[in-house]
Design a protein that fits this description.
The chain is built from 15 helices and three strands. With 417 residues, it is mainly α. It has one domain. Helix 3 runs antiparallel to helix 15. The radius of gyration is 23 Å and the shape is globular.
Length: 417
C-alpha cells in the first residue's frame, strides 16, 4: 500500500510534459501493425499538411493579417485539438460508440441547424455552412460526416438481416444521411452534400444491399442534385451553373470568373514539372489562386514539389485507405467493419475528389483535401474519424492478436511438458 501511495505521489510530482508523454506512451504502446500504420500515416499527412499550409498561406496571411504565420498558427492549434480528439476516441471502448451513436448524430444535426440562425452563421462566397464560435468558425457538416457513418453502422448492425432482402429496410438506412444532406444543401454547400451522399451509397452497397434497392434512392438523389444546380438563389444554383459551364468548355479565358481558379490551378501544376520549383517558392500562391491554402492546396503541392510530390500525396492517401480496409476486414463486429470502411471511403474518396477538381476532371466543388487543407473543422473531424477506427482496431488487437499470443504460449508450454 505504501508503494502504491509512493508511486502516485511520484507521478504527481512529475512535470506536466512528462506526464503527457507517459500518457501517450501508454495509449499507443504494443498495438497491431495496422494500428501503427494508420496512426503513422495519419500523423505524416497532418505534419505534411502543416508544412504545405504554411507555404501556401503565407502570402494571403500577410495580405489579410500582416502576419505570415497567422493562418499556420491556427492550423497548428487545430492539429493539436485534433490529435487530442484522435487519442481520446482511440481509447474509448466499442460499447461507448454503440451507445453514443444516436446522441452524437443529434448533436451534429443541432450544430448544423445553427447555420440557419442569423448572427451566428457565417457566409463565405454565398456558402453559409459555418458558425461563429468566439474568434473561430466551425463547419458543422464536417462533424456530420463522422456522426452519419457511426449511426448508419449502428443501424446496419441492428438490421443486418433485412438489409439483404428488404427494400424498405435499405430505404430507411438512407433516411439518416438524407436529413443531414437536406440541412447542408440549404446551407448552399453542394460539395459536402455530394460527399455525404457518396459515403452513404458506398456504405449501403458495401454492406451487400441488393441492386434493385438503389433505384428509388438514386432517382431521388438525381432530382436533388438537379434542383441544387438549377434551383436558383434558394440553394445557390447560379454559381454552380457557371462552374459546370466553365468545366465543360475547358476555356482558357481567364477573364471568365468561373474559369479563373481552375485555370490557374492547372498552370501551377504545370509549372512544377517533375521535382517542383522548391518548397515555399510558388508564384501562383501570390493571390493568383483563390482558396490556395484550402480547396486548391494540391495545386501548390504540385507546383512546389512537382509531379513526384503530387504522386507521393496520392500514395499516402491510398496507403491509408489500404490499411483502414485491413482493419475493417479484421473487425469481428458488423459495427466495426462498417464504421472503419465508412471512414476509409470518406477520407480517400474526398481526397480523390479534391485532386480531380484541381486536375479539371471535375467542376469546382469546394471540397478540402482531408488532413492537409487549411481548416479546423475538416482537420479535427478527420483526426477524430481516424481515432474512431483505431478504437475498433484496439479491440481487434486484443481479441485476435491477444488470443493468438495465448495459443502460442500454451502450445510452447505443452511442448516443454
Amino acid at each position: 500500500m505504501a508503494n502504491v501511495t509512493s508511486l502516485k505521489s511520484r507521478q504527481q510530482r512529475e512535470p506536466l510534459p512528462r506526464r503527457i508523454v507517459n500518457f501517450y506512451a501508454n495509449v499507443f504502446r504494443a498495438q497491431s501493425l495496422e494500428f501503427n500504420m494508420v496512426l503513422g500515416i495519419t500523423m505524416l499527412l497532418m505534419i505534411y499538411g502543416l508544412v504545405m499550409v504554411l507555404s501556401a498561406s503565407s502570402i494571403v496571411a500577410i495580405r489579410d493579417n500582416n502576419n505570415a504565420f497567422s493562418i499556420f498558427g491556427k492550423q497548428v492549434l487545430f492539429a493539436a485539438i485534433g490529435f487530442i480528439a484522435l487519442s481520446l476516441a482511440s481509447i474509448m471502448p466499442v460499447t461507448f460508440w454503440r451507445r453514443m451513436g444516436f446522441p452524437i448524430f443529434v448533436g451534429a444535426l443541432i450544430l448544423q441547424l445553427l447555420t440557419f440562425i442569423p448572427g451566428i452563421r457565417v457566409s463565405v462566397n454565398g456558402n453559409s455552412s459555418w458558425i461563429h464560435v468566439g474568434s473561430f468558425t466551425i463547419q458543422p457538416a464536417e462533424f456530420l460526416k463522422v456522426a452519419m457513418i457511426l449511426l448508419m453502422s449502428i443501424y446496419f448492425e441492428r438490421h443486418q438481416d433485412g438489409m439483404y432482402h428488404d427494400q424498405k429496410t435499405v430505404w430507411k438506412s438512407f433516411a439518416l444521411p438524407a436529413v443531414g444532406m437536406v440541412l447542408v444543401i440549404f446551407g448552399k454547400d453542394l460539395g459536402t452534400t455530394l460527399v455525404i451522399a457518396m459515403i452513404a451509397f458506398a456504405l449501403v452497397w458495401l454492406f451487400g444491399a441488393p441492386g434493385s434497392a438503389f433505384r428509388m434512392p438514386l432517382v431521388v438523389a438525381g432530382i436533388g442534385v438537379a434542383a441544387a444546380v438549377f434551383g436558383g438563389s434558394l440553394v445557390g444554383g447560379t454559381s454552380r451553373v457557371g462552374r459546370i459551364s466553365a468545366w465543360l468548355s475547358q476555356s482558357s479565358d481567364t477573364a471568365n470568373a468561373y474559369a479563373w481558379q481552375s485555370q490557374h490551378g492547372i498552370w501551377a501544376l504545370a509549372a512544377g514539372h517533375l521535382t517542383g520549383v522548391g518548397l515555399g517558392m510558388s508564384k501562383l500562391k501570390w493571390s493568383w489562386i483563390p482558396e490556395v491554402d484550402n480547396d486548391y492546396i494540391f495545386a501548390i503541392i504540385g507546383e512546389e514539389l512537382g509531379l513526384l510530390g503530387a504522386l507521393f500525396t496520392i500514395l499516402l492517401f491510398l496507403t491509408l485507405g489500404f490499411f483502414l480496409v485491413r482493419i475493417s476486414l479484421r473487425s469481428q463486429s458488423v459495427l466495426g467493419r462498417s464504421v472503419v470502411m465508412g471512414v476509409a471511403v470518406w477520407i480517400t474518396l474526398q481526397a480523390m475528389i479534391n485532386i480531380a477538381v484541381v486536375l479539371q476532371w471535375l467542376p469546382v466543388l469546394g471540397v478540402p483535401l482531408p488532413l492537409i487543407s487549411s481548416g479546423g473543422s475538416s482537420l479535427i473531424s478527420g483526426l477524430a474519424g481516424i481515432g474512431l477506427c483505431l478504437s475498433f482496431e484496439r479491440e481487434n488487437h486484443a481479441v485476435l492478436d491477444g488470443g493468438r499470443r495465448v495459443r502460442v504460449a500454451t502450445e510452447k508450454s505443452g511442448r516443454r511438458r
